[in-house]
Specification:
The structure is a single chain. The chain has two domains: 197 residues, Rossmann fold; 127 residues, 3-Layer(aba) Sandwich (Rossmann fold), CATH 3.40.50.2300. Helix content is 45%, strand content 16%. Helix 2 runs parallel beside helix 12, helix 5 packs across helix 6 and helix 9 packs parallel to helix 10. The chain starts with a helix and ends in a 5-residue tail after the last strand.
């Protein structure tokens, strides 16, 4: 008995060692789980659909090349239809049932704001695709984003207006979360840029005719330009009504219309409209020495070849989010949530479709105004506004 007993610690030690090896080996090859709650259908599908296609396309490519740190990636995609309540439900499922290691989600400002408390409570890194500045301001520990903010869009527009000597404007804003937020942000920087708002109108998400509001703006003496904070079909209706009323002053839209779908919906009325947007929309038109050109051209070619659809800035936002996450996981050498969060925050000189990203503990976006390009629609296509024009 004593003799058998003397082998017992050795046997237990060997078994424990073997178990540890198996657990380690299993962990090394376990799936990295990413949750994507997106507005694939519904009124914001022009945002969520390219985001979904982009994530699926590049996750497949990552897995074909061996995954991240040797671990395959499993993508959980949920379609919230643009409904914040649905986003919250799917966010809870992704975090609690799927056990995701990170979230790449939130096609709209409203759905993103519904998801933020969930990610914060769960302690899960969340890179979102919302346009409004409140998605990362004030900075929250676990929350990051890739699109330029509505505040930046206001400033870029106001910069351009000043260059053109236009300081008296009319505003017509969507009442959705993004439109309302951007209007509010624009109002905070009017004095900074010497802009005076002479008329201030709005429209609802379901409105199909903005002629009454635009008629008021047209009748306001002294207006030199009109700015439309909004996204979805609303801005296209505004643009068509604008043309029908023969309003002669320049019209500016937000980066919330940065897809070919806006030009298609607005038709010839979009001619001459200006907006701030990512370089992605004019990838082929960038000079060869532009440091962003390779990234945006490569993404554009890949996306259009795989989907047979025109590229949009919105798919670019999800590409940037995925690649920032991948690089952070590589630096962290794991999918450990806290380590990955820390590495996302340390992102420096990341060249994305949205611009050069330099994050910090107080800046969970990492883009500045130079990341925005001022575009003008000419002959049904995007063109770069040349300096001074």
């Amino acid at each position: 008995m004593t003799q058998h007993g003397s082998y017992l610690p050795k046997l237990l030690g060997a078994a424990a060692l073997s178990a540890t090896f198996l657990i380690t080996a299993t962990a090394a090859h376990a799936d990295i789980k990413i949750g994507a709650i997106l507005s694939v259908t519904g009124p914001a599908s022009f945002l969520g659909d390219p985001e979904k296609k982009t994530l699926e396309m590049y996750v497949a490519d990552i897995n074909a090349k061996g995954g991240i740190n040797g671990q395959p990636v499993k993508l959980f995609v949920y379609d919230d239809g643009g409904d914040p309540n649905q986003a919250r439900t799917f966010g809870t499922r992704a975090l609690e049932q799927d056990g995701v290691d990170a979230l790449l989600a939130g096609s709209t400002t409203a759905t993103t704001m519904a998801l933020i408390p969930l990610a914060e409570d769960a302690g899960v890194p969340f890179i979102n695709f919302a346009g409004a500045v409140q998605a990362v301001t004030p900075a929250k520990k676990w929350i990051f984003k890739t699109p330029h903010t509505d505040l930046m869009a206001c400033e870029k527009i106001f910069e351009d207006l000043k260059k053109r000597g236009l300081t008296k404007i009319g505003m017509i804003s969507g009442k959705d979360a993004f439109g309302a937020s951007m209007r509010g942000q624009c109002m905070t920087v009017t004095k900074k840029y010497g802009i005076e708002v002479l008329a201030d109108e709005s429209y609802g998400p379901g409105d199909t005719d903005m002629t009454p509001q635009l008629t008021k703006i047209k009748g306001t003496a002294g207006i030199q330009a009109v700015v439309n904070p909004g996204f979805g079909q609303g801005p296209a209706i505004v643009t068509r009504n604008y043309k029908q009323l023969d309003i002669k002053v320049p019209l500016y839209e937000s980066h919330g219309v940065g897809s070919k779908q806006y030009i298609d919906l607005a038709g010839p009325a979009a001619e001459g409209v200006r907006l701030p947007a990512a370089a992605l929309l004019v990838a082929d038109k960038l000079p060869d020495n532009d440091p962003q050109k390779k990234v945006v051209v490569d993404y554009k070619k890949t996306y259009e070849a795989n989907t047979k659809q025109p590229v949009s800035t919105f798919g670019g936002h999800s590409y940037d989010g995925l690649m920032i996450l991948v690089e952070a996981m590589k630096r962290a050498k794991s999918a450990d949530k806290a380590k990955v969060r820390d590495e996302i925050e340390k992102t420096k000189n990341f060249m994305g479709t949205g611009g050069v990203v330099n994050m910090s503990p107080t800046d969970h976006l990492g883009l500045d105004l130079t990341a925005f390009r001022m575009l003008e629609i000419k002959n049904g296509d995007w063109t770069l506004v040349q300096s001074g024009s």
